[in-house]
Amino acid sequence: MIYIVQLLCPARHCLIGALIGPDFSSQQEQKFMGYFHRLVADEDINPWCHTCGSREIRAECRPTKYRTMEEAKQAAKELEAEQMETRRHIDSIRRKASRQ
User: Fold this and answer.
1) Whole-angstrom Cα distance, residue 20 to residue 10?
2) Sheet strand arrangement including 3-8
3) 86 near 29, Cβ under 8 Å?
4) Where are the domains positioned within the chain?
5) How far apart are CA 68 and CA 56, in angstroms?
6) What is the rounded CA–CA span in Å between residue 48 and residue 13?
7) What span, in angstroms and rounded, lies between the C-alpha atoms of 10 and 8?
8) Quick one: pLDDT at residue 74?
9) SS3 category, 58
10) Alpha carbon distance 41, 24 (integer Å)
11) What is the pLDDT of residues 15-64, one digit of tens each?
């Protein structure tokens, strides 16, 4: 079983996520949270949702339907591409609104 750990706002917009193999442990979840906090401290990522603006962020870890990391990575790549397109669309709308 492959797991996904994510930082989510209440609307379930994902700030950052990672796939974790079948040897998932709470130590790995803590490592992920430490990584996130370093990204925030180094100002590499903002600690709020860029989609809805929420500053309420929580970690979530859930099993996926995938049995191998290869399957999970392929699905993640496809979802990432979809999310990038959504992000471009949102940014375009915001740019148009700011010009009016």
Assistant:
1) 23
2) 14-20, 3-8, 58-63
3) no
4) 3-99
5) 32
6) 10
7) 7
8) 94
9) strand
10) 26
11) 888 898 887 777 877 887 788 778 878 888 888 888 889 999 888 888 99
pTM of the entire predicted model: 0.72
- Token pair 């803590």: residue: 30
User: What residues have CB less than 8 Å from 56, skipping those under 6 apart?
Assistant: 9, 10
* Helix residue ranges per DSSP H, the chain: 26-41, 69-99
C-alpha span between 23 and 53 (Å, rounded) = 34
Per-residue pLDDT at 70: 94
Asked if residue 5 lies in contact with residue 29, where contact means CB atoms within 8 angstroms, the answer is: yes
Structure tokens at 34: 């430490």
Number of helices and strands (H, E) in the chain?
2, 3
CA atoms within 13 A on the CB side of 99: 6
User: How far is residue 36's CA from residue 70's CA, in Å, rounded to a whole number?
Assistant: 24
